[in-house]
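Possible race condition, two jobs.
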Amino acid sequence: MEEGVLRVMEKPNEKQILLFYCMESEDLARKVAEQSPLIQLQSINWRSFDDGFPNLFINNAQYIRGQHVAFLASFSSPAVIFEQLSVIFALPRLFVASFTLVLPFFPTGSFERMEEEGDVATAFTMARILSNIPISRGGPTSLVIYDIHALQERFYFSDHVLPLFETGIPLLKQRLHQLPDTDNVVVAFPDDGAWKRFHKLLDHFPMVVCAKVREGNKRIVRLKEGNPAGCHVVIVDDLVQSGGTLIECQKVLAAHGASKVSAYVTHSVFPKRSWERFIHKNDGSEKAFTYFWTTDSCPLTVKAIGNRAPFEILSLAGSIAEALQI
């Protein structure tokens, strides 16, 4: 080989993947399987005993020996986590060639630190649990997570799993370039944390950064830097719960002259139907958010918001299918 010249390695043959999934993630699993004929869906009987504890059965277990196996999880509530963990811990022990766990949304991610003695950092607890998934014949479990809330959480996992941290931002960029006013788009971040996480992935666009400041007992959103005047401003963050920060950020941007405001979050948690705050009414009232883009990482939210404006779902299916081949 000539000095200074890198020889391009041939792409290895892609793997045949047997994809199991929880009931909540069935729609996303089917979309993932549609991405490639090499991905075949498999089923599990999700049954319960009379006392409510799971009575589970992995169908065709004897035929998955020596196969590359994956499981698509959704930890939407503590009630469904145990039954899925039972399957997740069982699959690698069935003499599979490799095991991949896809957990698009790491649900305890926002509880990652102690602010006073006695706080429990449940993100670390969840990471410890997942770090104890049995090793398969192919080695440690590959763990695929999208836009984990705090970047330091990647260090919470032990060497018994191989975390692969992916992002939904490429889906947003693709959608923004499809807009008729794409040349007038400005990206806004609700705080410095969101800026640190995402600005390098969106450096093609002008940027605005907001900040939360305390005024008495209240936390107020202020414009920290950038100019939204006359632009279509898209607020970008990793997740939304009640939506209060997004709404306050929208008000500040509109007050500083933004012509339109939209939002993108990878994970729409929206407890207690808080998504209703964003729905476009048919009463001619002003629409605060032109678009609200999110992914299908939270399946229950996807079913709830349906085709309601301003929501648009950007599916992770293609990205997950690619991750399964790594």
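Job #2 (started ~2 s after job #1):
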Amino acid sequence: MEAMKSARKNDTEDVGSDLSEQIKAATKDNHVRAENTTLMLDYQKGKITLPQYKLLLCSLYEIYRALEEELDRNASHPAVAPIYFPQELARLQTLEKDLEHFLGSEWRQRVIVPAATVRYQERIRRIGAESPDLLVAHAYTRYLGDLSGGQVLGKITQKSLGLSSKDGLSFFLFPGVSSPHRFKQLFRSRMNSIELTEGRREEMLREANTSFLLNIQVFDDLQKMLSVTRTEAEDQSEGDAVKSKNMFPSLPSMKFTVGVCVALTTVGLGFYAL
């Protein structure tokens, strides 16, 4: 543990005192781990189905509900206020719109999420209550990731699903941001203006890594579940295979597996250009 802390400190010293650059340097290794998963590469190849995308929306909805409710609740906190951009960045309403488009008016009763998403939610809720300044690390990795990869992911998803319009793809759109590049610069500048003690800065860097690790853990769990559900699927009869075309497969493990696959792939792809 001490060795890891030392290495992180050296990295941040090399990039100067800007918090955004220090986070980028401190999370470099986990960034590489996230971008080199098999699931990540599969998404980039356009391997996504409509059932997967529906479950993706469910997972993202729960993550953003926790994040944005905590940001709203702590909007006046000295560390949160500088990076609080609900009009430009909020994703919750876009996700609600997409879920209603695909799942219907009763979509709230059809939301399914994996245990890993619950763990992510719990982490965000806990720091929102106990250490609101650490929400900055999650906002940085989540929102800037979406701004970086959103346009590309939207096009990949639309093409993969054969959608003729942008209906159901609101999550990837940021109408309040005219230039993602300039807005990311503004966001980083606001982050860098936050006053932190050396100890809290170290906590911020650790929390940014926690954000990555939570996602990597989901990939690991997903890979294990995929090996099981693929075997189960191969053993099903043709009639069972037809049933599996329903939005949510009957097996709980399959419900979780597909949703996590796409949700975390999206998270990771966005991280590339932080």
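The first helix runs from residue 2 to 14.
Logs attached separately.
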